[in-house]
Each structure stands twice: as structure tokens, then as C-alpha cells.
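Entry 14. Structure prediction run on the chain below.
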Amino acid sequence: MRVEVYLKPNCSLCEQALEWLDDEGVSYVTHSLLENEAWFERWRYQVPVIVVDGVERLWLRFTLDELRAAVR
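Output returned:
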């Protein structure tokens, strides 16, 4: 399973999502929206965005239970 997290700097929701992923022992790769104009245009108001195996599963506000279900 490949988990990718798209985020912006200084984003408290992003920091929470990464903390939850760490607590759950999930390996992930992060991508800053500032690295790619297309990502920024697509998701700038929706971070964090959690993509699992190429499928957008979660974005913006979600619960720990929703995150757990997405990465199972």
C-alpha cells in the first residue's frame, strides 16, 4: 500500500494527519503543494489530502476513524 499526503507548510490539519499516521504505524510520503502548480491549483483549499494507492481517499477535515478505514 502506498500512502501519500499532500500538504502545505504551517497547516495544523496536516500536522494532525501526519501525527495520526505516525501513531498508527503507517508509512507515507509527503508532497508539498508548493512543489507543483497543478497540485496547488487542485487542492490548495483541501489539505491535507490523503491518497492511497493512487486514489484520493480523504481531504480537509476527517476523523481518526476515517483515516484508519482509509489506510486499511
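The chain is about 35% helix and 25% strand.
Filed with the rest of this week's runs.
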